Queue: 2 jobs
Job 1
Amino acid sequence: MTLDLSGRIALVTGASRGIGYFVAKELAAAGAHVIAVARTVGGLEELDDEIRADGKGTTTLVPLDLADLPGIDRLGGQIHERWGKLDILVANAGVLGTISPIGHVEAKVFDRVMAINVTSTWRLMRSVDPLLKASDAGRALILSSGAAHSARAYWGPYAASKAAVEALARSWADEAKNMTLRVNSVNPGATRTAMRAQAMPGEDPATLPHPSEVGKAIAALADPARMETGLIYDVPKKRFLAYRMPE
Ligand code: NDP
């Protein structure tokens, strides 16, 4: 079925490149108005140009460093003033930090990974929570990673940050389980982006899915008809997983 998001308002962080760029493009192609957030104005403008050329959705570009926590609060306030609601949140922006043994991780790198991947994501959740609840079918998608569960050697800070946002997403989903808001985490799987190249410099990027493929799969989860909540959507497996401890 064709995804129809006409009239819906979507906020996508990390929309200047990589996965977020293509999620934003797909949401716009389905008719959504996309509020695109990142620091790199050139990337946001390129997105805007492509969306205009497609002639379907529209954008509002928000150059913002997500380390600016009061800036995130102001963004929520501006969305409230202009639209009074938010239909779709894609909390996608993230940083890798460095791939190295835990004993070698610099404190400032650890702090940065936690600041952007966890604290900023929580702040964004807090800022838009009432706006998503004001929608008739709020959909929140929180980008995680298989690293949260595999917890492989040398991926410690990044893995911990993704485990943390998954826990936040699941708690948020549970709080909203009797409302129309649905909250899920997403594992995009290895994708051909700048972050993946930083993590695996020896890998041939051509062996990985292009972010446009992954973006399409993620955008489809914003469909108001999808009712799953509190789960993790695994893009490579094409299905929802429930990572729950046995009762
Ligand atoms: P990229 O590095 O290609 O893009 C990251 C995006 O996040 C950019 O748009 C960047 O924008 C934005 N961003 C980073 N820091 C900030 C900041 N301080 N303020 C605002 N925006 C920021 O990453 P990917 O597209 O690969 O990753 C997207 C998500 O998917 C991440 O959460 C990542 O952890 C997750 N993921 C990716 C995988 C992969 O293989 N690629 C695998 C598993 C998970 P700008 O620099 O312009 O601010």
Note: The chain has one domain: 9-241.
Job 2
Amino acid sequence: MINYNVDGDGIATITWNMPDHSMNVLNEKSITAFADAMQKALKDDKVKGVILASGKESFIAGADLNMLLNAPSDPAILMQQFSELQRLFRAFETGGKPWVAAINGTALGGGLEICLACHYRIAAENPKAKIGQPEVKLGLLPGGGGTQRIPRLIGVMAAAPILLEGKELSPADAKNLGLVHEVVPADKLLARAKEWLMTPSKEAPIKPTWGKTANAVDARAVQPWDRPGYKVPGFPGGQVWGPVGVQTFIGGNAMILAKNFAGYPAPKAIMACVYEGLQLPMDTALKVETRYFVSLLLDPVAKSMIRTLFFGLQDANKLARRPKGVPKQEYKKIGVLGAGFMGAGIANVSARAGLQVVLIDRDQAAADKGKAHVQADVEKDAGRGRLTKEKAAEILGRITATPDYAALKGCDLVIEAVFENREVKADVTKKAEAVLAPEAVFASNTSTLPITGLAEASPRPENFIGLHFFSPVEKMPLVEIIMGKKTSQQTQARALDFVQKIRKTPIVVNDSRGFFTSRVVGDYISEGIRMLKEGIPAAMIENAARLAGMPVGPLALNDEVAIDLSWKIIEQTKKDMGDKYRPSGTEEVVKSMVDQGRYGRKAGKGFYDYPAEGKGKSLWPELAKMFPPKPELAFGEGEVKNAAVEEIERRLLYVQAVDTARCLEEGVLTNPQDGDVGSIMGFGFSPRTGGAISLIDQVGVAEFVRRCDAMAKKYGPQFEVPKLLRDMAAKGESFYGAKDKAKAA
Ligand code: NAD
């Protein structure tokens, strides 16, 4: 696990190389093994200096997240466990011998923190290596000294993006910032580390500040903050509380609150930790960090985020839903029908993944327009240095724009993205099917039309599937795969292979109106519109949505997806469902907006007004006349107002969560994880909840049911819970409780 070797010159090398792990991680076993090696190196008088190295392609990927996910809930135990880690790093940092980190590849989280406790850091030239502290993205903070050593090394301003945004650096960037001292060719890394240790210091020995009676030690073995007279960089006189500090921290706090609408505990804890810690000696500062770290670890936000955004996402990307036994499909050539907004995007990401793409539209000009979109996009990337000119030309060269269906011959997959109209879709399906090989997969990118019905236009419904992309295709990470009644397991497996090939995250759902994502997004928008009708001011609805963690308010979202489209969907649903249609209570508002030509952003007007030039939008002032705000709903003070806002937040999130649970009960979703990954990656459901199902666990199933029952009485049937939840509440079950424990076992 950890190899320990001392050479004839008295240089010890401690090499991390964990068996059964593709990457080194910090867990109980590896930390214990490392502690043993460290003690040997410190105690052995023959050892003059130590190299910390890795036997794997990357250095250390960070803490074992399974360990964090299943951490005990007793704060005293956690304090002890994580203080021990701090003491361990501190022990070699203040051990009197120089340590060099030989960073051969990725060093993230605890993997970077162990390097920061070393006195010298050399990174290998490795384009794949990432250096950083990603903890904040999972609701945590660096708990191995990162919040203390990084700002002490490079100053608070430079540390901010690393700690608060989890920004990852290349070795060269890390050197420019001063996080590593040198970058050398990979094959010279260990030799250079040894050379540094063998070169005596030009400085006289230093009496460090870490112990009152300590003798002077080799200057190379004393970190800047352990030297007498050390001052935190960036603050005159090192005064963190001085005028510059006040400006930095007040401004910084305001910025993080504005950015995440105050909802995430981790950035706030990081700011507090840095501010308090920088005013204290290192050992006390590390205790402060451990306290904040433990408080975050005990907060359900971190566990929910780790579970969904790390494990859930990893499972989805590794194709956990792929039926076993189907040979992997290697894709070479695909077809896209409809070179519009979505079709061009799909062609773009496919060509970028190395596939030949035939892009078809009604005529040559329409097909060319789609290709021109791709051209503009790759040229933009080439202009910004993200793609070489040759690569950009290669990508574009893979796309053939044509109205001729014969060009589809030899395609392994065809994705249809023509108008959202059954007849048009049936027509292009037939034309494509006439040239396709019997084993080819046919997919529809419809956002609402049930797949089983669309598959009727195909002579091979078992090869027909839904591949629902999100706009803009280039940016949005999710693809919702929809199984029609007759779709075969083989087609499911092959569709998953395609999604993996284009580096998107798949979830698999069963056919139903609106599938999973469109249906739940519809719930969110509808609840916003119902609130507007009730007399809650639009601004309050939109801001409460942001406070709840949604990326955009429900009214702004409806403007984005188009209000006339909402009306078309309402009409289509009425037609399809006949007597069974249950009005959502939004019909009248949507109709009135459409009648006034307020179609949304594309029309420059919807619930918001969009100025013709420049950016920025503002709520349409007439909304207040159409839906006069009711003072009792909007204009309380203090706690009354807070309670009103909290209620709006709850309504907006719970209406989605309860319908996601219905999707599980109805079999639209086959497991909670797809609901969580799909809701966050597909439509930005408040990530700090861990997703629409995780939210229910966070609240507690029984409490969630109790709250929904009360809301159903007050606001309507959209909050009626499915039997599944009621049964779970009665039995005291949760969605993930059992699963987390199984992982720990
Ligand atoms: P769009 O209007 O931008 O593009 C549709 C394209 O299909 C046009 O270029 C049109 O010329 C072409 N087309 C129409 N009839 C055709 C025919 N008979 N033969 C060949 N080409 C034909 O629409 P879009 O926004 O790209 O949507 C396409 C599909 O994707 C729809 O089913 C839509 O519901 C779905 N979708 C859209 C979004 C979105 O946000 N826009 C998101 C997910 C799914």
Note: Residues 739-745 have pLDDT under 50 and may be disordered.
